Amino acid sequence: MKSLTFAARLQRLKLGRRAVIALPLVWLTLFFLLPFALVLKISLSESMVAIPPFGPLLEYADQTLHVFLNLGNYLFLLSDSLYVAAYWGSIQTAFISTLVCLLLGYPMAYAMARAPLRWQLILVLLVMLPSWTSFLIRVYAWMGILSNSGLLNNLLMSLGLIDSPLRMMNTRFAVVIGIVYAYLPFMVLPLYAHLTRLDNSLLEAAADLGSRKLNTFLKVTLPLSMGGIIAGSMLVFIPAVGEFVIPELLGGPDTLMIGKVLWEEFFLNRDWPVASALAMVMLALLLVPIVWFHRYQSRELEK
Amino acid sequence: MRKPRMPSFTTVMLVVGLVFLYLPMLVLVVYSFNASRLVTVWAGFSTEWYGALFRDRQILAAVWTSLEIAFFAASMAVCLGTVAAFVMTRFGRFRGKTALSSMVTAPLVMPEVITGLSLLLLFVQMAQLTGWPADRGMATIWIAHTTFCSAYVAVVVAARLREMDRSIEEAAMDLGSPPLKTFFSITLPVISPALVAGWLLAFTLSLDDLVIASFVSGPGANTLPMVVFSSVRLGVSPKINALATLIILVVSLATLLAWYVMRRSEKRRLALIHRASDDE
Q1: How far apart are CA A294 and CA B237, in angstroms?
Q2: Is this structure's pTM higher than 0.80?
């Protein structure tokens, strides 16, 4: 090492630095970015009965290169009202669920951040613990609760509140409950992280200056926790739009969601090009929220 | 004398939220001990479903497959995610930084159906071009899980790296320690709790994934969520309740242990600060 000149050592450092950067960059480019290009490619190809079930984009025959860009899959999505309804249904359901998560999660996070210090760790662990168990099983739990002969109907009937069972399973109500239940921890945690950072002296100053509680909340607490609101809402909304398990297990024919439609196009109809087109349109719809989330998150990462 | 205070609105909501989170899990646990096959009618205490669960070869094989994939995916994700976090927090500006930080945050929110479909298409095209992977199974699930788990690890580790006192690293470098040695002898020990936390998070995420695994798996490899899903979509089954109870038990014990360890280290830290201030 000692015998190396300064320039040679600098050269080695630069090389090492580049190698270290390349490791995650190459892996993620290969297994995260490149696949999206392939989805785009296959969404433009024609469905075929073959293995794999799609046609080529380029073909070389008779000394001519034929380029096939089949826009049919996208036009098909537009022409069939099923797909438009599924996109719209997904966005509506995800929006309602995010709102419910926020309205329930914000006061929870607020109470956690105001709790005595020795309680805070316990409360954080209590909120997170369900998300470390199985997602699938937590959704499954609601099947036994919401079904016509389920626990909730039995309870309501034995209390005399209803005479005949309410239909709750296979409705949007059930899907929203499932999403709120599964994603609530991801809303609470970023909110809590922001609310604990909130400087108490600001609230005291506002109170000393005669600000009413609600006014202080609206003018001080809420704006300062905006980062947490955005992060939490995006962590719920974006995955919820593409959710498959919850509409499959708790939803029904009238709760069309795009994740489920994509799954069925792929696994049941084996129409890979249409499934790819569905994914590309979903990605385009979610691009703005994803960029929003990324901007917030990278600010957090580089702080 | 203090007047008994009314609990505030937010405290009430916190209790409501926690009850909402835990009641359905409690229901699962209670009904796993139900003698009846029907999950909604109580017919006396029984442990027969646990016996049935342990006799179910398919479920046991799937548990093993899932644990194996989760172990290797979490380990690889910790390596990749730590390097990514280090590069992003310590390397200043470099070409590709925006790309890297986008590829670290996007998997956190990307709908699983999109990730699953895109990776499957990648594997299919790779097989056409290079002959690998000839058939999909544990290896392809491992790659898929490593990729999305490393994003989570990167976020957890980056948070710790930012909190860490950088002057120790700088002091070591000023004294002539090469960067690689500084990383292994100074940085790594300091951030090791975050590595453990990241590994555990990646492990549970991998164990839990149904959608991505279903896309990239082949006929040979069935993970636990895949087996549970095919049973659950046919309706409620007490065997799954028994499985759920065991999962909840294991996760609760692990969380309790984590809480104990964290509380002890916090106490030790406070004691040290206390002693230091006494000495002054």
Answers
A1: 41
A2: yes
